[in-house]
Write a structure and sequence with these properties.
With 365 residues, this protein is an alpha/beta fold. Helix content is 27%, strand content 28%. Strands 5-10-12-13-14-11 form a six-stranded mixed beta sheet. Homohexamer.
Length: 365
């Protein structure tokens, strides 16, 4: 198994094109053509993680957080980032980061948090815009099933909980094949009109290349007429944060106790309690203060995330509980998500989860 084969599968879980502009997800060290011995998954990639990979015979590390965020001008070991990169290169270890692209997936980091809390009716908190497109093409009647099925196999036509969605309308297509053509229907130099079906189907941006390839390979015509149009519709499957509801409303204190135990939190920093039951819960793994207004807009009772600053707690304005459980604590189970995914896709690849707690924050209690 090559590194690039595992990367290609991870890209189906969280396409790299959905990472934020400031991010540096992707292959950071190593070559896609390297043969994988074992995989080590972790939240962070540090010197200790590299040493663990060496000790356990792993030459691919799949981490959530990129070890390199900004450009490196030198590699002389003056800080932990440079030392980690040097150690990885010296020991032929590939490092792959799957960061904000995994944060933005419907079944990614935040879904894992929701599952651990026990939330139902899970939804993206801040769905992305400008991610949906529509394909319109024209197909002869006897080929419509073949073309339609080819497009659906790529993932086109998925709308929410419905698969295989599209719209057909009948019409007449007209054309005149020239001397250089090889017409499927009709003869050179003679104008032809034939019954066709107009097929309209929606798809997500990352599928565009696959959609076009599927269309061209399944369509019977020599020259395929099609249009792709950007839609303004919200894509409810990709975006930041998530929210859901508890099966039964819980007392605030009891709920916070459960969160503290579930996530192994040293301390929960929170705004004043509101003396009401908790039913609707919003979450964001890592740093989520930018989603507070979104959590308030859907009338969540509590917003669970990390890295809130002092003045940002005031923004709750007595309308919602902010519960800062810590960056590491909120995202630590991402390693389980990645391990489970890799093992489900590759039966022959040995995948280990780190035993090292990379949380740089300690609590004196």
């Amino acid at each position: 198994m090559k590194v690039k084969e595992i990367i290609n599968k991870l890209d189906t879980l969280a396409p790299s094109m959905y990472q934020e502009s400031y991010d540096n997800a992707g292959l950071i060290t190593g070559s896609g053509n390297d043969i994988v011995t074992k995989v080590l998954v972790s939240l962070d990639c540090t010197e200790e993680i590299i040493e663990e990979a060496i000790a356990k015979g792993c030459n691919l590390i799949v981490a959530h957080h990129p070890i390199v965020f900004k450009g490196l001008k030198r590699l002389n070991g003056k800080n932990y980032v440079e030392r980690t990169i040097i150690k990885a290169i010296k020991n032929d270890i590939s490092i792959y980061a799957i960061h904000t692209n995994l944060d933005n997936m419907q079944h990614g980091v935040n879904a894992k948090i929701c599952d651990l809390i026990g939330l139902t009716n899970q939804r993206i908190l801040a769905p992305t815009q400008s991610n949906l497109f529509k394909l319109v093409t024209y197909v002869p009647s006897n080929s419509i099933e073949k073309v339609e099925n080819a497009l659906h196999l790529t993932g086109a036509g998925k709308i929410g909980n419905y698969d295989g969605c599209n719209f057909r309308s009948e019409g007449i297509g007209s054309y005149t094949p020239n001397a250089n053509s090889t017409p499927t229907i009709g003869d050179k130099g003679i104008r032809k009109s034939t019954p066709e079906i107009k097929l309209e189907i929606q798809f997500q941006k990352h599928l565009k290349g696959q959609i076009i390839n599927a269309l061209l390979s399944s369509h019977p015509y020599e020259e395929v007429a099609y249009q792709i149009t950007a839609l303004e519709n919200t894509d409810n499957e990709i975006g930041s944060g998530m929210y859901g509801t508890l099966p039964e409303a819980e007392d605030e204190i009891e709920f916070l106790k459960r969160i503290k135990q579930t996530f192994g939190v040293g301390v929960i920093r929170h705004t004043p309690l509101l003396n009401k039951k908790i039913k609707k819960v919003a979450v964001c793994g890592g740093s989520g203060s930018f989603l507070l207004r979104n959590a308030m807009s859907i009338k969540a009772d509590i917003f669970i995330t990390g890295d809130f600053k002092y003045h940002e707690f005031f923004d709750a304005e007595g309308k919602i509980i902010i519960a800062d459980i810590g960056h590491y604590e909120s995202e630590q189970f991402t390693s389980d998500l990645l391990k489970d995914f890799i093992e489900s896709q590759f039966e022959t690849v040995k995948c280990l989860k780190t035993t090292i707690n990379t949380n740089p924050i300690n609590y004196f209690v």
